[in-house]
Design brief:
By secondary structure, the chain is an alpha/beta fold. Helix content is 32%, strand content 21%.
Length: 281
């Protein structure tokens, strides 16, 4: 698939989802591995209904991003804005939350949700996550929720994350990651590209990609299985502080065990994702 083909497949898929959410419905189905159910009831209650309905992610990056008052946070592939709005509350009026999305329908929905929530420290941007329209070193924290697997050029995404982060800044994302034993063909058999499955990186590919972009302290922590050999994970990394070698960080993240996929106790026996088991909907 070409970059243009991937972008159009993903755009059309999520444009349809945005329209559904704006009309008060969504295709998340009963599977709780992907969608609004990965957020707590308290978090969902903080937000406009349409923002919750448009949540098509595989995890809750806010739960591990350790956002602090006054920080600038960027959500890649922000969709209806659920993670941006939650982030804005946590960084407070002296901070700022940016959302980046390529889909006009999602951006329109996000702006509606921003207005309904009365969020004054939020800005939504149009663009691709392979070319983030923000200056270098302008962001403290990058988050995303089940989006990097949708990117046509993952190495460009990793390079852009490293570029926009300030020295000592950090990344905390949720994404679907494949077992190293699965080939690209086997990943494609388990779901579509727009369904967050076919384009997923393996554990070693994700780790090596982040390191190649200059990020360090990479942690990949499994959460729950979404398809056989495909797991929702929290991925954390830091940009070395000025003058530090890769892997060093001026403000270390809390220690977390590095867990291999084969060590993970599976909590979702059904497998698959929403919309008929195709992954993100």
């Amino acid at each position: 698939m070409t970059t243009e083909t991937i972008h159009e497949e993903v755009r059309a898929h999520y444009a349809a989802a945005a329209i559904q959410a704006a009309e008060g419905s969504c295709c998340a189905g009963d599977n709780q591995a992907i969608g609004p159910e990965v957020y707590s009831a308290l978090e969902r209650d903080e937000l406009p209904d349409a923002a919750v309905l448009a949540s098509l992610g595989c995890g809750n990056p806010i739960a591990v991003a350790d956002l602090r008052e006054g920080e600038r946070v960027l959500d890649l592939g922000s969709g209806g804005g659920i993670d941006v709005l939650l982030s804005a509350r946590r960084v407070g009026p002296t901070g700022r939350a940016f959302g980046l999305d390529m889909t006009d329908e999602m951006l329109a929905l996000a702006l509606r949700n921003k207005a309904e929530a009365g969020a004054m420290n939020v800005e939504f941007l149009k663009g691709h996550i392979e070319a983030i329209p923000l200056p270098a070193g302008s962001i403290d924290v990058v988050i995303s929720n089940c989006v990097i697997n949708l990117a046509a050029d993952k190495s460009a995404v990793f390079a852009e994350i490293a570029r926009v982060l300030r020295p000592g800044g950090r990344m905390g994302v949720s994404d679907i990651v494949a077992d190293d034993a699965l080939s690209a063909g086997e990943r494609a058999e388990r779901g579509s590209y727009a369904g967050c499955i076919a384009g997923a990186l393996s554990v070693s590919e994700f780790r090596s990609g982040l390191i190649a972009a200059g990020l360090g302290d990479v942690e990949i922590t499994p959460s729950h299985e979404v398809a056989p050999g495909m797991t929702s994970c929290i991925i954390r990394a830091v940009k070395p502080a000025a003058g530090a070698a890769a892997g060093a960080d001026a403000a270390p993240l809390p220690a977390r065990p590095r867990i291999r996929l084969m060590d993970l106790p599976i909590t979702n026996d059904e497998g698959g994702g929403c919309c008929g088991g195709s992954g993100c909907c």
